[in-house]
Design goal:
Elements (H helix, E strand, L loop, with lengths): L1 E10 L5 H11 L3 E7 L2 E8 L1 H13 L6 E10 L7 E5 L2 H5 L11 H7 L43 H8 L24 H9 L4 E4 L4 E6 L3 H11 L7 E3 L3 H7 E2 L2 H7 L6 E6 L16 E4 L4 H10 L3 E5 L11 H7 L6 E3 L13 E5 L2 E6 L8 E8 L2 E3 L9 E10 L9 H17 L6 E5 L5 H7 L5 E4 L1 H12 L6 E11 L5 E10 L2 E7 L3 E2 L5 H4 L1 H13 L8 H9 L5 E2 L2 H11 L11 H10 L16 H12 L4 H23 L3 E5 L6 H13 L3 E3 L11 H9 L5
Parallel strand pairs: 2-5, 6-13, 8-11, 10-14, 17-19, 19-20, 21-26, 26-27
Antiparallel strand pairs: 1-3, 1-4, 2-3, 6-7, 7-12, 8-12, 9-10, 10-11, 14-15, 16-18, 17-18, 21-22, 22-23, 24-25
This protein binds zinc ion (2 copies) and fe (iii) ion.
């Protein structure tokens, strides 16, 4: 048995939708409820997974004729034992919030017009209708009406006005409605931009939520040049494919993955490469997966139709700065990176990167929540206090809690630069203004140095500090509506622990917001502190020093001294750092050029190796594991096999700890669980032992999900 939760937005209210849902659910003998609130229509039903699949498919296929579904987000939850199906009413607070929709990919009707030579919008790159087009990226204030969008500077021509005012027209009250006569215009012809791409040049394109940098994905020199100029030496690039057919040529695309690619959110979907040659090697060297998206705006459709090649499509920024949105700003910040700028005069109200998702356990797992998802809320199981949660430091996203809904902002990014901190502050004010929200409490991370925490402490409002790994676990538990006691497995690279050491390999027995740290990875020293995050060999040296003594690291005397004296060598229980160490010892990677690279390479090394063998990791003590890795590496065992035995060791440790805890429900969160091998193997083994396992679906397991956990934990802990 499973519980399916679906939240729909669009024309689903006042069109007989609730009676339709009622009839459909009861005809399939599914119990649950349907609720209409200003943030959309939410349905929960319980049953066999296959019947839930049928329900979901028929919900879309057989919906009442006048209704239109714009966005649809679903989660698979644990059943709670509904005894009937009911139509519920929402509460006041939920009614008062105004729905703001995310940006929606171009619909089929608009696409047909775009390529119809007889249509007045033939080849017009800003075509949209009430069912598609920009929303969140153009809204400046609520209620959502043209004068409160960035479209206010364009005056509707008579033909567009007629469409806008005709209730029978597809563009009735379509706020961004426009045409070649009255709407936004491009700074240069699309053909010229496509030509530049085919010539191997770098194009800065003003997209929906900001600028993108595009380059021919088949051209190794061009891709390498973009990497160099953007100061992004190794982190994987995403691709935009001209068509689903071309995506299928280079990647394996399952039916569920196809649905994600073609959904109105049109995210980047992480796919397994097919092995087809042609994509430049430098596109995604480190990852076992390749991120792919399809054109999602008329401008992208036109450009891709013209160029007809796979393109690298990456955020318009240098390194990990926020994405540029303004024409002048882009000229300035992308100067020296882009050869050609394809811009237009429709302003972007706020930055919103492309979202990243993947399929795991047969479900959608959102890894970066941004365009197409933000600012739709995540529903939680109880009423929350009005909390503003400011998130972590890296991969920052903020959130506000209104009643049962947590509005998680779009991905903001790492808060290392002044620009990023300004974007962070603007995102907070923006979210509060749009939702008429006044926070009474601010939740932040316990870390003394996070820019987000410092902002919170300087705000003048009461602050609740939430431990990083407790927030991870609470985030996953909240989006999965976990009730009662659970075992929180919270693994990542770095987080500030309650004992002022660096945590990252934690097990919590959690109940009612109270966390008991029942187990953790055996601690070790990180010689050089922060430097060890980039230089994984330092973690390896530290573990060797512990296991084999100073002679094992005689070639790095400075490190040996740090470890001996405990100077500049903070203590950690981080599983992320253990990944780094094993990557170094197995010969996979001595360093990480971006966060988590060594771990990604280690996962990739497994390839198609299948083994159940596991190194010993009894109670999280890595001593024997390190000895075994060392032995195997010296004996010339292939790195992929070492990696598989290491991953299996972690899985066995999770299962043994879960068994010892006697807790049935297990929650897996933290950046380590982006690792598909680790996550899926842990889930399979835990389920085989009778555990109910919860993993992320609507928010990210990485620090992008921290704000949700903070919001939930800062609120009252009853229930
Ligand atoms: Zn449309
Ligand atoms: Zn017009
Ligand atoms: Fe984390």
């Amino acid at each position: 048995m499973q519980r399916l939760r679906v939240t729909l937005t669009g024309a689903v209210q006042g069109v007989g939708f609730r009676p339709f849902v009622y009839r459909l659910a009861t005809s399939l003998r599914l119990n649950g409820w349907v609720l209409n609130s200003s943030s959309g229509l939410t349905v929960e039903v319980e049953g066999e997974p296959a019947i839930l699949d049928e329900f979901l498919a028929r919900l879309h296929r057989e919906k009442p004729a006048p209704s239109v579904i714009l966005t649809s987000e679903s989660s698979r939850l644990a059943p709670v034992g509904f005894d009937r199906f009911e139509i519920r009413t929402s509460n006041d607070a939920e009614e008062k919030t105004v729905a703001i929709l995310p940006d929606l990919a171009t619909c089929g009707d608009c696409l047909r017009e775009l390529f119809d030579p007889a249509n007045r919008r033939y080849h017009y790159p800003f075509t949209n209708c009430t069912n598609c087009g920009p929303r969140y990226s153009i809204v400046e204030n609520v209620p959502y009406d043209r004068p409160r969008t960035t479209m206010k500077i364009f005056t509707l021509c008579p033909a567009c006005r007629h469409e806008y005012e005709d209730p029978r027209d597809r563009r009735f009250h379509a706020q961004p409605n426009a045409c070649p006569v009255c709407g936004p215009r491009l700074s240069m012809p699309i053909e010229k931009a496509a030509r530049a791409l085919l010539d191997g040049r770098i194009l800065a394109l003003k997209g929906i939520g900001g600028f993108q940098l595009l380059v021919d994905a088949r051209n190794e020199d061009a891709v390498v040049r973009l990497r160099h100029l953007k100061a992004r030496e190794e982190k994987p690039f995403a691709l935009m494919m001209p068509s689903l057919e071309m995506a299928r040529k280079y990647c394996m695309v399952s039916e569920a993955e196809r649905a994600l690619l073609e959904s109105p959110a049109a995210p980047i979907v992480l796919l397994t490469p097919s092995g087809e040659p042609g994509i430049a090697p430098s596109v995604a060297k480190s990852s076992p997966y390749i991120g792919v998206m399809l054109p999602y705006s008329p401008l992208h459709h036109l450009l891709m139709r013209e160029a007809a090649i796979p393109l690298v499509a990456t955020s318009g920024n240098r390194s990990d700065e926020p994405i540029a949105i303004d024409n002048e700003e882009a000229r300035r910040r992308l100067d020296g990176i882009a050869d050609v700028f394809l811009m237009h005069d429709r302003p972007i109200a706020r930055p919103c990167d492309d979202s990243v998702v993947r399929l795991a356990r047969g479900r959608e797992m959102v890894l970066r929540r941004a365009r197409g998802y933000a600012p739709m809320p995540v529903r939680v199981g109880r009423t929350l206090d009005p909390v503003l949660a400011v998130g972590a430091h890296l991969k920052n996203a903020v959130a506000i809690a209104i009643s049962h809904q947590v509005y998680v902002s779009q991905h903001i990014g790492d808060l290392d630069t002044v620009e990023a901190r300004e974007t962070f502050e603007r995102a907070i004010h923006d979210l509060c203004r749009l939702y008429r929200f006044e926070p009474r409490v601010i939740a932040c991370d316990m870390h003394p140095d996070y820019a987000s925490s410092q902002w919170a402490r300087a705000s003048g409002l009461p602050v609740v500090e939430i431990q990083h790994h407790e927030a991870h676990a609470a985030s996953c538990a909240a989006e999965n509506d976990v009730r009662g006691e659970y075992l929180g497995v919270s693994w990542d690279g770095t987080g500030y622990g309650r004992d002022a050491t660096i945590w990252g390999g934690e097990f919590f027995a959690a109940r009612n917001g109270v966390f008991d740290r029942i187990a953790h990875l055996r601690t070790f020293k990180l010689p050089g502190g922060e430097a060890a995050v980039k230089e994984g060999w330092r973690s390896a040296a530290s573990l060797l020093y512990e296991v084999e003594g100073a002679t094992a690291i005689a070639d790095t005397p400075a490190i040996a001294r740090m470890l001996e004296r405990g100077v500049n060598a903070p203590v950690t229980s981080s599983v992320g750092r253990l990944f780094d160490a094993v990557a170094a010892l197995s010969g996979v990677a001595r360093e990480s050029r971006f966060e988590g690279q060594a771990a990604m390479l280690l996962e990739r090394a497994i390839g198609s190796i299948e083994t159940r063998e596991a190194y010993p990791l009894k109670d999280g003590d890595w001593a024997e594991l390190i000895n075994a890795v060392r032995r195997d590496a010296r004996a010339g065992v292939e790195p992929g096999l070492i990696s598989a035995r290491f991953h299996n060791a972690l899985v066995v440790w999770i299962v043994e700890t879960a068994a010892a805890s006697g807790i049935r429900q297990v929650v897996l969160s933290g950046g380590c669980f982006q690792n598909r091998y680790l996550m899926e193997h842990a889930v399979a083994l835990l389920e085989a032992r009778g555990h109910v396992v919860f993993t992320h679906q609507r928010v990210s397991p990485n620090d992008g999900g921290i704000a949700l956990g903070q919001a939930v934990l800062a609120s009252s802990t009853s229930g």
